[in-house]
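Hello support,

Our group uses your service weekly, and this is the first time we've seen a run hang past the timeout. The protein is WD repeat-containing protein 55 homolog. I'm not sure whether the cause is the sequence or the server load. Input pasted verbatim:
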Amino acid sequence: MPSIEKMSVEKHVGDAIALAYHKGHVFSGGIDGKIKVWDSDLNLIRSVDAHEASVYALAVNSSGKLYSSSCDGSVKFMQPPYDRVEELLRCDDAIEAMYCEGDNLYTGDDKGLVTNWQDDKMLLKYNLVEEVKSLAAEKGWIYTVRDCDVVVSELLPGKSGKYVTRTVLDGKSPLCLLGPVLTDRHKYLAYPDRTGKGLTLVNNLLAERFTIAWQLPDCHEMIVNALCGDEKFLYSGGYDNKVKGWTDLDEKKPKALGEIDLGTCVNCLCCGNDNTVYIGCSDGIIRRASFL
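Update from on-call engineer: The timeout came from a worker crash unrelated to the input. Re-ran successfully.
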């Protein structure tokens, strides 16, 4: 049966907005502008005054460098042992989404601009026109979504910042890549349907032409605003205060692992080790759950 294994004693003042996980460390960003660093059992290691306003997004690269963005227009980063904040960027736009592919960082803002960073230097900018509320990147493809369409764009070689649109799919934010990595790409892409209450899983490999693997209409009672997944599992959470787990992703209909009612709005999720999922909610508390 699904259950909450751990709850943080410390919490954010207000909503916990973003989560990330890397090698036994859990990172949470809140509306209070703080980034909290936890161990895997949610013991607080340190709390850092990272931003002057609400944290929007967190992303951690393969080296453990943690990036954060805020509605104050800044992108900042911390390196282990996560005791000092440095600024990467300050601008007038709200950077609402970030994603790390290896050691490369991608940022997406409310004007539709996706920027690729390498070694903390701005490499290329791609104007995707529509506000970027959720973002992923993999092997020259960028996945972006706002409220109506998930767009997969292929970046063209060179330094032109040009791209071609691979496909446009009916869906809403957020999105996530999951499943086993085959031919250097995750097998699946998941996102809510346009109602916001159902889930869609799409075959992500080029040979599959982004065909729909399955759809689960109305699997949540209210809008889904948090997703995460790994090789075998997909987790979803939202305004109905519930986190739900799914497995057997290769079947025509996935197997439901059950649900947990948190009694408070679910804002963010991230997968940890040993089939666990971390949950950030509007009460500022971080929780670790198991669905097995």
